[in-house]
Amino acid sequence: MEETRYRRGLEAARNLDEENAARLEEALKGIAPDLYRYIVEFAFGDILSRPGLPVATREIVTSRRCRRWGPPAAVARPPQRSTERRRVRAQIVELFMQIAVYAGIPAALNALYLAKEVFAERDAKGLS
Best label site of 3, 9, 74, 123, fewest CB within 10 Å? Predict the structure, then answer.
């Protein structure tokens, strides 16, 4: 299982930015090889390789400017139809899972709790 996560993560990291993936490995291999493996397995193997979001969306979320305002803006977007609402909500959850990698798990949890409240309020009001 661990080796599968590692291989999947390494592939995802290289697909996103091969040069950056190589730099990360080089920077950490002499001082913190366990951290490097953890980043590859968790951040890239478990989170960034998930199928719920297109690569372009993941890249937007990881930009420095977007990390400050992207999640609240994503929650505020009103989906138009029921099927779109489910799809958009699933993508919002995926975004927040990715945010955990960059902003930390507490920040992702806060965003998910806020999203849950917003979803419930919109549902209670019969809004899409």
Answer: 3
